[in-house]
Amino acid sequence: MTDLWPEDITSDDVLGPQEILEGQAKELADRTGSLLKAHVTRQEMEDRIELGFEVQSERTDNRVRLFVVQHRLEFEYPVTIVPPPSLPDYLKQHVYRSGMLDTVKAFQREGGWVENEWVASSPRNFETKLQKVLALYEVKAMVLSLLASAKAADSRDDGESDA
Amino acid sequence: MNNPIELLAKLVAEKRIDIVVLAESSIQTITLKEELGHSTESSFHEPHAETGRLQLVCRDSEFNLREIYGDANGRVTIRVLRIGSHELLLAAAHLPSKVNWSPEDQSTQVQSLSKQIRDEEERRRNSRTILFGDFNMNPFEAGVVKAAGLHAMMAKSITENGGRVVQGETYPFFYNPMWGFFGDRTEGPPGTVYHRHSGHLSYEWNIFDQVLIRPDALPWFPGTIEIVTRIGTTDLLRSNGRPDRAVASDHLPLLFQLSECE
C-alpha cells in the first residue's frame, strides 16, 4: 500500500514547542559564553498555554521577554508566535511613508483572507518560524543590546579586580 | 500655556515629584530631562533600561530604578526602587487599549503581566511590589480582580493575609486604592478618563490609570494618591469637568507618594 501520510509525520525528533524553545535557550548560552541565558516561562490560561522566551544578562541581572508562543491547552500544535512590535520609526533602517494613493487604495480594497505568518502546524514548521523570529531586527537588536550591557559590566568588573 | 512638556515640568516642580513615568509620550527623553531639570533646578536622569516604550526619569540616583525585567513589546518594565535601606519593586505597565482588544483579550494579557510580576518577585525573593500604569481596564473588570489576573482588591483589610488559594494554587493580592475614587463622594474627578460609548452600557468615567500595592509594600505607602486636575493656573478639565485633551491628555495624571518605612 502507498504511504499517504505527509512527510512531517514521523517519530524522529518530534518535539513540543517548549522543548524547541528550551533548545534555543541553551544555544544562546553556548553562543554567548553564558553572558546571556534564556529561560522559557510557562503559563496556563483559560483557553491556552503561553510560553514566554526571556533572555537574561547574567552580569547585569536584567531580564527581557523577547516574544511569546501560544497553543491550546490540550494540543501543542498548531502553535503561534507573537513577535515583538516594530521599533519606533526613528530606529528603523527602512520607513514606509504612505502617500495619497494609499488612502485611495484603502477605500477600494475589498475584504479578503489574511495569512498569519506566525502560525506553525508542525515541529519543523515551528522551527522555521522560530528561526525567522530570532532573526527579526527587533529581536536581534534587543539581544545585542543585552549582550553589550553584559560585556560592559564584565569589563567594568575586570577593571575593578585588576586595580 | 498649552505645551505638555512645560505643563509637566511645572507639575513636577510644584508637587516636588521625584519619579516621572510617561506612556505614549511624544517627548524625547533628553528634552524631558532638560525641561524637568530647568524647572526644578535639579538634575533628572534616566536609569538604564533595555525596553524604552515607557519613559522613566528620576531626580535622585539613590533610587536606583534600574530595569530588572522588561517586555520587548515595551508595555511592562520592572525596576528596583531603593528607599533608604530597603528594596521595592516598581512595575509600570501600559496595557492594550479597548479599541482593538476584547475584554477576553485584555484579561488574557493581564494574566501574562501577573505571571511576569510573580516570577520576578520569586526570582528576587521580594514581594514589596508597587504596580502602576494605564491598564485600559477599570478596577472592577475581571482582568484586574480575578485571582490569575492582578487579583487587586478594593479594601486593604482583604489583602492582609497576603493571598488566596484557588484550586490549590496561591495567588497573591494587590490592594487597589483606586476603587475609592469613583463617583462624586470623594475629592477630585470621578475617574481618570472620560469616554461616552454609543451603545447601551457606558460608564462615562473610567479609572484606567491605577496604582496597586502588594500587602508587603503597604508600609511604604502612606495612602496619598491624587488625580491631578490643575497645574498652576492651568485647568486640565474643560468647563464640563471632563479631561481637556487639547491642554494635556485624555487621561488625567496620577500622582502617588511612597515614603520611608520606619
Keywords:
heterodimer, A: about 160 residues, alpha+beta, flat, B: about 260 residues, 5-stranded mixed sheet, two-stranded antiparallel ribbon, about 25% strand
Q: State the distance separating the first and last CA atoms of chain B.
A: 41 Å
The strand count of chain A comes to 5
User: What value does the average pLDDT of chain B take?
Assistant: 93
Q: How do the helices and strands follow one another from N- to C-terminus of chain A?
A: HEEEEHEHH
- Which descriptor suits the 3D outline of chain B? globular
Largest sheet of chain B: 5 strands, mixed
The CATH topology assignment of chain B is Deoxyribonuclease I, Chain A
Q: Roughly how many Å is the radius of gyration of chain A?
A: 20 Å
Largest sheet of chain A: 5 strands, antiparallel
Biggest interface in this structure? A-B, 25 and 22 residues
Specify the helix fraction band of chain A.
Answer: 25-40%
Q: Can you give the mean pLDDT of chain A?
A: 88
Overall geometric form of chain A: flat
Order of helices and strands of chain B: HEHEEEEHEHEEEEEEEEEEE
Tell me the structural class of chain B. alpha+beta
Which residues of chain B form runs of ≥5 with pLDDT under 50? Answer: none
Quaternary class: heterodimer
Number of helices of chain B: 4
